[in-house]
Design goal:
208 residues; five-stranded mixed sheet; 7 helices; globular
Length: 208
């Protein structure tokens, strides 16, 4: 066996080991935090989504879906108090986009592949690019239901962004969330894109 082939085999084995260890660690952390949220959460009924939903107390204003075999929706109390019924419906339409696309499963597979491919130093860039693309697709899912829905989602993003504690980073399990730890410029881009989609929808409707 040549040195290059041996080195490649070693890196591949190391990548598989890292992927397995990180996968187990992520699963345990997710299960532990989800169990805590379920213990202190209050079951609620949310129109427009067909999975179990819970209201929880959390310092970060989260709306998100955790799990892919049995997904659950978690919403922080301050978000329910802050948003209007229309804005909550728009946020739910966004989360339905993640559900339809099975984004939690895709995220897990992506992370596993990233850990295996240790020889490619683009893991974080790949994660960020996929995350941005999945959020855009979920935003589009809401916007397809009308320009009012797009504007309500943009309004919800702005409202939630304003109440994020300064310097806060969400302590969340693996899942898909309306707002995570993205930077302000990312939120600004999403809001601008939703407004543009609403304007396009309005122009299409006026032409018809």
């Amino acid at each position: 066996v040549s040195l290059k082939l041996g080195l490649l085999a070693f890196l591949s084995a190391a990548g598989l080991a890292v992927s397995l260890v990180r996968g187990i660690a992520t699963h345990r952390a997710t299960s532990k935090l989800t169990a805590d949220w379920l213990r202190q959460g209050k079951p609620i009924k949310i129109a427009g989504i067909n999975i179990d939903a819970y209201q929880i107390h959390h310092s970060f204003p989260l709306i998100g879906i955790v799990g892919f075999l049995r997904p659950r929706l978690f919403i922080a109390s301050q978000v329910l108090e802050l948003l209007t019924a229309e804005e909550i419906s728009a946020a739910i339409a966004h989360e339905n986009g993640h559900l339809a696309a099975r984004d939690n499963l895709k995220r897990g597979l992506l992370q596993a592949c990233r850990d295996v491919l240790l020889i490619i130093p683009t893991g974080r860039l790949l994660d960020r690019s996929w995350s941005e693309a999945s959020e855009e697709a979920a935003d589009e899912n809401a916007a397809r239901q009308g320009n009012a829905m797009a504007l309500d989602l943009a309004s919800a993003l702005v409202k939630i962004a304003r109440i994020i504690p300064l310097g806060a980073r969400p302590t969340m399990p693996a899942g898909v969330f309306l707002l995570g730890d993205e930077e302000a410029k990312g939120i600004k881009f999403r809001v601008g894109r939703l407004i543009a989609l609403a304007a396009t929808e309005g122009e299409t409707g006026s032409r018809s």
